From TrEMBL:
Keyword Transferase: no
Biological source species: Piscinibacterium candidicorallinum
Subcellular location(s) of the protein: Cell membrane; Bacterial flagellum basal body
Gene: fliO
Residues annotated as signal peptide: 1-28
Record key words, sorted: Bacterial flagellum, Cell membrane, Cell projection, Cilium, Flagellum, Membrane, Signal, Transmembrane, Transmembrane helix
Name under which the protein is recorded: Flagellar protein
Length: 134
């Protein structure tokens, strides 16, 4: 499990435990009239609410700080893949302006072919206009 998922799980678990403790404490105390609630009970409820707010604010801060973001965008892009056996695949991978055709087995990856990556639509349109005007 990666670090962001572990942190999210820990936050969810602590939130669940806090809410469970509140429910258990209320059930153990039994029903009481609103005017008969002692000051210490309202003070502890305030602390629990404050704790929950702090947990949410901390998660928001970590996410905004980049610690919970996913992996950075990679230059590696799998364009297509097809299974050719039970555990074997052939994939077309685009990296650094090239397209690589690779064979993938459980034990190794072999380069089968290498070609330049096709130009994007805007580049193809520009080239077509240039050849038409020439």
């Amino acid at each position: 499990m990666n670090s962001p998922a572990l942190l999210r799980s820990a936050l969810c678990a602590s939130l669940t435990l806090s809410l469970s403790a509140i429910c258990f404490a209320q059930q153990a105390a039994g029903p009481v009239a609103a005017s008969a609630v002692p000051a210490s009970s309202s003070g502890s409820m305030f602390m629990v609410v404050l704790l929950l707010i702090a947990m949410v604010a901390g998660a928001w801060y970590l996410k905004r700080g980049g610690r919970l973001k996913g992996a950075p965008a990679s230059e590696l892009k799998v364009v297509s893949a097809v299974a050719v056996g039970a555990r074997e695949r052939i994939a077309i991978v685009e990296v650094a302006g090239k397209r690589l055709v690779v064979g993938i087995t459980p034990n190794q990856i072999n380069l089968l072919s290498e070609t330049p990556a096709p130009a994007g639509f805007s580049e193809s349109l520009k080239q077509a206009q240039e050849t038409r005007n020439a």
